[in-house]
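Priority: low. Protein: Uroporphyrinogen-III synthase. Input follows.
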Amino acid sequence: MSADGPLLGKTLLITRPLPEALATQRQAEELGARALLAPMLTIEPPTDPAPLAQAMADLTRFDGIILTSANGARAFLRALPTPMPPLPPCFAVGPKTAAILHSAGIEARAPEGRFSAQALAEQIVQWQGGGKGYLFLRAEQGRDELIDHLRSQGASVTCVAAYRAAATQRLPETVRYALNNNEVDAVLFFSGRTVQSFLAAVGDDGLLKKVTPVCLSPLTAEALAGHNLPAPLIAAHATSEDLLAAIRDHFSPISTPQDLPA
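Result:
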């Protein structure tokens, strides 16, 4: 933890899965915050691995491979045959997902500025045109905006579960203690599934009445509907950096952009 910084004295609760939770924890601590971890989803292999194996057996039949998360990118790399076969173009939701592929020597294109499934779908159509066939590797449970947009442009999309995100049933004791003693200033949500898992594990909205929810996107914030929580902060763009910037600006509005770690 930094000895100073715009979030000094604030306690943040990070609910995203590992290993990304650790990177967000480091970023928060560089801003001076105390950062607690409560990963509310555990990344596991898909319930039925056969569809993934079948898709990976003949990747050349697709015009592109679509990945909308770091977990999907890692699952894709684990499932690749050895030696690596010829691959169609790969498309990633953002630079961090693309970087995982780049680290394995695989080129990947990602949109600039907007990092969402909808933005990626729109960009793929601009890059590739309509009428193409894609393999979309994602979690067992996910939204269909990307699929719907591509199909509306005449594309065919083969959607295959590359992993599943299992809900965590209990909070770590250190986190439960911090909530019970009103020590948590903000809780960070990176998906609707993490919101649902976290609220189920907490069990009592009253423990969160002084905790500011901070959401990666408006879609993530929708999962808070019906719960008696403070109004959420929403990141300007769907990145951990922008999410932390929203927290910084909320709690320390006189800070400058230079305060945020790269």
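The mean pLDDT is 93. The CA atoms of residues 67 and 73 lie 6 Å apart.
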